[in-house]
Amino acid sequence: MGRYIDEILQPGEKVLYSTNAHWIFYLPALAAWIVALVLLILSVTVAAGVPSLVLGCWAAATVAAIAALFWTVRGWFHRLTTETDVTDRRVVHKTGFINRHTFEIALDKIASVDVDQSIPGRILNYGNVTVVGVGEGSTKIIDTIASPLAFRSAITAR
Asked: What is the tens place of the pLDDT at every residue in 95-137?
């Protein structure tokens, strides 16, 4: 599976900047893996003398590990199937694999680019970018991308 932008580049068009969904999508998986690990440690140390408690910890750890595996695969697939690029002519954003959603806005049709970052977003360098185009209904929001300020600079620096 190649990159979407490589399939749609026009002759002479160059990619100036590429970014992706931020790794923060792995946060639920990371939390579930930590819970599974803590439950396994509890089963060995604290509950070692009580067989029913050990079995309960193992069962809860198994459920947490299955959830963690699901969230890990889901986060990985989301990052794999999301592309956001700036070329010398347009902004291209693609999400999805089978059910694909894309939008493209020509650089000369962009009125403004707004960045929205929370406090964790500023610390971890992710945020939402709103690309406002000329005309009605041409506002597009790109959620939770990595390095949103660098992305905005790639669009506005011409």
From this structure: 998 899 999 999 999 999 999 999 999 999 999 999 998 877 7
C-alpha–C-alpha distance, residues 104 and 108, integer Å: 12
For residues 20 and 79, is the Cβ–Cβ distance under 8 A?
Answer: yes
Of 126, 106, 104, nearest to 115 by C-alpha is 126
Distance CA 49, CA 29 (A): 30
Q: pTM of this prediction?
A: 0.81
Beta strands in the chain (DSSP E): 15-19, 83-87, 90-95, 101-106, 110-116, 126-133, 139-146
Distance (Å, whole) CA 158 – CA 151: 13
Q: How far apart are CA 109 and CA 138, in angstroms?
A: 9
Query: Where are the strands (E) in 20-125, listed by range?
Result: 83-87, 90-95, 101-106, 110-116
CA distance 149 to 136: 25
Burial class (CB in 10 A: 0-12, 13-18, 19+), 103: middle
